[in-house]
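To the team - adenosine monophosphate complex, inputs and output below.
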Amino acid sequence: MNLILLGPPGAGKGTQAKSICDKFNLCHLSTGDILRNEVTNETELGKQAKDIMDKGELVSNDIILMIIDKFITDNQSKFNGFLFDGFPRSSEQAEMLNKLLNDIKVNINKVILIDVDQSILLDRIMKRKEEEGRLDDSEEVLKSRLEVYHTQTQPLADYYSNLKLLEKVDGNMEIIQVNQAINSILEAA
Ligand code: AMP
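Output:
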């Protein structure tokens, strides 16, 4: 089973991804986590990505392709599938993913959109800033991340809905309830 998690920054994608992956033995592929790791380790790639991430903009598709390609090759045989979190983030990236999955002859089974009211995103992001200290979790940067989300990523909901893959979950609920809603969708899949 291969899944995509869609949703705005602060929707709880990372938290939900971890429990879904444990339950269904999926490999969590978070481009944000991979990039943050590169930044922490001060690799060449991390140096290229850091300023863009700090501004809340999207790093180049070349960098993303390199990361995803390597991650899939390294992990494909170890899991029942992948859970893509934070990728794809634009229609070009959705095309990139189609090509990559075609090459390894697998399909996306479901795309789960965690829908959260904008009014509660800021509170969640501020809480995460205290817990994790992410530099891009500031009110200022959140504005540009939301703008990027609305213009580039949200249109993917229609794209996957047309392919009959999209399932929407109310992400305003408590973590455990969101988790139950996602599990019911996946158990019925
Ligand atoms: P995230 O943890 O998914 O919120 O990602 C944090 C930051 O990493 C984003 O604001 C982007 O700067 C960068 N990033 C993560 N995933 C992607 C992606 N698929 N395409 C471009 N930039 C990304």
